[in-house]
Fold this sequence. Notes:
Chain A has nine helices and twelve strands. By secondary structure, chain A is an alpha/beta fold. The longest helix of chain A is centred in the middle third of the chain and has 15 residues, at 97-111. By secondary structure, chain B is an alpha/beta fold. In chain B, helix 6 (151-157) packs across helix 7 (159-165) and helix 9 crosses helix 10. The chains are: A alpha/beta, B alpha/beta. Chains A and B meet through helix 2, strand 7 and helix 3 of A and helix 9 and helix 10 of B. Bound molecules: adenosine-5'-triphosphate and magnesium ion. Magnesium ion binds at residues 42-43, 87, 172-173 of chain A.
Amino acid sequence: MTMLKIENLHAEVGGREVLKGINLTVKAGEVHAVMGPNGSGKSTLSYVLAGRPGYEVTKGKVTFLGQDLLALAPEGRAAAGMFLAFQYPVEIPGVSTTMFLKTALNAVRKARGEKEFSPVDFLKLQKEKMAQLGMDAEMLKRGVNVGFSGGEKKRNEALQMAMLAPKLAILDETDSGLDIDALKVVAEGVNALRSKDRAFLVITHYQRLLKHIKPDIVHVLADGKIRKTGGPELALELEDKGYAEYTGDAALRAGDKSI
Amino acid sequence: MPIAPETLLDKKYEAGFVTEIESDRAPKGLSEDIVRLISAKKDEPEWLLAQRLKAYKHWLDMPEPRWAKVSFPPIDYQDAYYYAAPKTATKPKSLDEVDPKLLETYKKLGIPLREQEMLAGVAVDAVFDSVSVATTFREKLADAGVIFCSISEAVRKYPELVQKYLGSVVPYTDNKHACLNAAVFTDGTFVYIPEGVRCPMELSTYFRINEAKTGQFERTLIVAEKGSYVSYLEGCTAPMRDENQLHAAVVELIAMEDAEIKYSTVQNWYPGDENGKGGIYNFVTKRGICKGARSKISWTQVETGSAITWKYPSCILQGDDSVGEFYSVALTNNYQQADTGTKMIHIGKNTKSRIISKGISAGHSNNTYRGLVRISGRAENARNFTQCDSLLIGHECGAHTVPYIENKNMSAMLEHEASTSKIGEDQLFYCRQRGIGEEGAVALIVNGFCREVLQQMPMEFAVEAQKLVAISLEGAVG
Ligand SMILES: Nc1ncnc2c1ncn2[C@@H]1O[C@H](COP(=O)(O)OP(=O)(O)OP(=O)(O)O)[C@@H](O)[C@H]1O
Ligand SMILES: [Mg+2]
């Protein structure tokens, strides 16, 4: 079943075209990795999919679980089952992670016409997911991401993903800032969520994450377009050779080889 | 299209309804005769009438305070009523005797007396315009020796106590608004906690202005004897009306040795409409004195209403080692103006004060923190910590911080922190990505900003205050 279908997506940010015709199809059960040089538009793609204000789609179409994704507000996309683990998680002083998660979870459930969690059920679920990710309960009492280390912030993103149990999770460099043990824990968290009706779009610069989260398909995003698509071996090749092949004139000659 | 955060702040004033009820009003205007009439209506002793008249005469020549950063046309004191009482309110002995319409009013405000009576263990002294109409839990409090009644009743039943303390913290000469109150106050609350008694429940009063063109001048007096403790909450709402109504209350707190008074306010008076028409002028004088050693007075306020708020709950730290605290959230929107803060007057040795102020401004509103910390010459080792944070929503509002420090003792340690911030687009988007709608996101972020203050409120009221902040932020989305 097709979960996400992106067709000829063009988008501008700050008056500049950053996405220049993205085509990408993700089926349920699949894990896609997106790799590419700095500034190539990976985070932009994730923001456009999540509906961030200021990221303007100028052309193209995105279908998510049969719906016109671009017509939905960000919170509507979340309710439809889309989750974005931010490259730079945001701090919200004075709002504990527990409070934040409870508000989010119940908002999503309400939007889906489901019953809100009782405080007891919520805390039970949170405790379970927290333990899986080796997180400290004390952290969840602090303001969301306030005073968290880089790695703690990423773990917190993983916790939120686990709690919200999305249909499609976009992980924007969730591996950066994680130490080796944390990387494993977070990867295990992702793997635990892998199922035939869930999909992942994993943005990363490093093969090491893909050792733990085995992708089905790997894409190279350069200068706003998907320049190449392949299997897991593509990631190894990139680690070896870098992106020289996909940037500058070579890339333009190569044209659009995305599926 | 995303909606600009400022449009989320269009308030729906949920308490804006008028109860149709016959009322007993004094003629319009203010004069010596009106003062006499109020006193006569209340069957007051001679000394109180004399005090009122003294205040009235003083008031006539007193200039209005003009230093606050608020502006409004001159108040026509002759164009208002100074006494109004619901006709049916002839001293009900129980809730059953209370006009069902009044109870309905309270229900709409979210204070079902009966339910509170049964469930929450909260004693509510509800003031409907000028006369106290329902008092619950009197008996349980009486068992503990606590006096919790309307000030009029206190004048009749405990004249010595009232005479001793009334005006002892806020003299009628203090300022024009307090002076007016001293002349025409109609009702309010009296609390007396005897030595060593921990008040067995939170005490709470809801004030409500119902009559059109009625100023409300309530008077609150709380005396906590040696080693006692009381936590008191007042909540205020008023119906929507086009004209501006004056509210000039006076609150006096007295804490003896080792006593503690916690005074919390949730103020939700009608703020006027989105063009700045109507709304309450909230000119309030609140002051507490820590008379005894190691006594403590703590003010917590959540101010979301009123067209103009002019209010500085203060502490006179007279006893050695006494502590004063001020925790404030002031939220202004549209054309609201708030000039609020505190005064901490350190007189005793080792006195400590703590000021946490959170101002949120949106729309075209103006929000000013104004605070004075005064350390007298004999206040050895006094300490003050002040933190003032402002949150701006939109581009047309103003936030101002005006701290005054007067230090006459070199051993004092004073700290002051201040910050101004905006709700970030990134914060909003982060919340929304997690499924929280725009309104909910703003409410969540603002509540987070206020957390340090909200957590000072008694549990059950913190939840209410949080809801109020959310309601005040509710807007025209969708
Ligand atoms: N608000 C903005 N205004 C102008 N340009 C922007 C804005 N946001 C992003 N860009 C530009 O868009 C391009 C793509 O940025 P993006 O963050 O998507 O890159 P990325 O592939 O995620 O890079 P990295 O690997 O470093 O995370 C960059 O050149 C960036 O400078
Ligand atoms: Mg990026």
